[in-house]
């Protein structure tokens, strides 16, 4: 788990969105979904695109309908949209990956998001709660409720929803 995170982090440092990546996202996302996706920083966007490509590959071994496959790819592209609420810089990523999950940091929302300590606490809060915050963003933007659910539960283990399991598996591979 930890090694995977470190590997992801190293790979993410050289994130570059190619024209093929751009075409891929535009193929699958409608304009409203795409405008949400475009809020992501390059590192998270690249991770999401890679996750979506893996979802497509994994979907071949599941008996998904065309619509389900479409939802799975959209869900993969938007699963981390909650992280767009703050700029989670490399410093925060390293801190959160190495220490964040061992601490209570991130479990509460600081009253303000101004610079300094509050910014740090708010970033940790977003990192920890990005699934719920992302689902809220998606709902507010009027996205399909199926998609909102995929974002909300993308870290849920042993879900009864096969699409959530595919996204989670793909997420872990990227
Ligand atoms: Fe996530």
TrEMBL record:
The keyword Hydrolase applies. Coiled coil: none annotated. Residues 45-173 form the HD domain. It holds the Pfam family HD. Transmembrane segments: none annotated. Keywords: Hydrolase. One of its GO terms (molecular function) is hydrolase activity. NCBIfam families: HDIG (TIGR00277). This is Metal dependent phosphohydrolase. It comes from Thermincola potens (strain JR).
